[in-house]
Amino acid sequence: MSRFRYGPRLAATLVGLTLAVSACGGGSSGESASYSGGAPAPAADRQAPRLAEPSAAPVTAPGSDGVPEAGSGGAGQVKVVPQDRSIIYTAEMTVRARDVDAAAARARQLVTAAGGHLASENSDASSDGEGYATLVFKIPPGDYPGVLDRLGRDLGTRESLRQNTEDVTEEVADVESRLKSARAALDSLRALLKRTGTISEVLKVEREIADRESELESLQARQKSLASRTSMATLTLNLVGPTAKVEKEDDGPPGFLAGVRAGWEGFLDAVAFGLTVAGLLVPWLIVVVPAWLLLVVLLRRRRRRAAARRAHSEGFLPAGPPREPSGVEPVTGRPAEGTEGTEGTEGTEDAKDTEGTEEDRSGGRSSTG
C-alpha cells in the first residue's frame, strides 16, 4: 500500500525540486547577480561604468591613505571601489634598489604595518649588485593604494608596474544564490527520505542527495576561493640590484618593422636552438662515429673472406688447360699437299682397311671349318 501511496508523491516532489533549483540557478545570473551585500541593484549598476573608465578619478575607500598610485604621467592609477562591490586586485611592480636585502626588509615592514602579510619569497643575494628578490604580498584592499605608492617611493627607483582589477560581484552573488538553493533542496530531500517506504524509493532519494551534496561542496569551495581573492589584494614585488638587467616590455605599435623585428628574433632563437642541439651531439659523435667506421671495415673484410671461401668450394677457380670443343678433329703434324693428294691417300688407306677386314673374315671361316 505504501508503494502506491508514496510513488506519485515522490516523483512529483523530485520534479518540483529540480525545477526550483534550475529556476534559482538561472535567476542568480540575472537579477540576483547585480547586487551584493544587501546593496540596491540600481546603485551597483551606476558604479559599474566607472570601473571600465581608465581615465576616471580614483575612488578612495575608507581606511586608505588617500594617496593615489604614483604612475608615470598619471596613467594606471589604482581605483578602490566601495565595499558593496567584490573586486580582485592584482599588481606586479619592479623596483631597482641599492641594497636588495634592506629593501626586502623594508617592504615586509610596510606591508605588515598595513595589515597585510608575506605569501611567498624567492631571493638571491649577490655582492656584485646583481642580486634580486621576488616577494608576493597580500594587502587589504583599503590600504592597497597607499602601500603600493610607499613601496614605489621608499625602496628605490620603480622600473615597471602592471595592475589589474576584476569585478566578480555577479559571480559572488551567483554562487551565494546557488548555495541557498542547494541547501534548500538537500533539506527537502532529507525530509522526503524519512517518509519513503520502499527500497527503490529510498535508493532514488539517496542518489539524489549524494548528487546535491557533491554540488554543494563544489559551490562552497568556489565561494571560499572568491572570498580569499577579494578580501586581500595580491602584489608581486620584484627587487633588483643596481647593475641587474631588467627586461622591459616593448609596447610599440604593430606594423611592418615590428614584424621584421619579430621575425629576426625568431630566426636568432632558431639558430641558437640549432647550435645548442649541435653542441649536445658533439660528444656523442666523437664516440659513435669512430666505432661505426670500425664496424663497417670489419664487416667488409668478413664479407670478402666469406666470398673467397665460397668461390673456392664451388670450383670457380681454373684447374687445367682449356679443353677443345667436341666434333673437331685434332690437328696432325703432316703438311697439307693439296686437295687431290689428300683424297688419294685417304682412298688408299680405306682400301687397305677393307682388304684387311676381308682377310680377317676368311681366316675366321677357315678356322671354323
UniProtKB/TrEMBL annotation:
Transmembrane helix listed as a keyword: yes
Coiled-coil residues: 158-229
Record's keyword annotation contains Signal: yes
Transmembrane segments: 271-299
Region called Disordered, residue ranges: 30-78, 310-369
InterPro entries noted in UniProt: DUF4349
Biased composition regions of type Low complexity, renumbered to the chain: 30-52
Signal peptide span: 1-23
Keywords on record: Coiled coil, Membrane, Signal, Transmembrane, Transmembrane helix
Full protein name: DUF4349 domain-containing protein
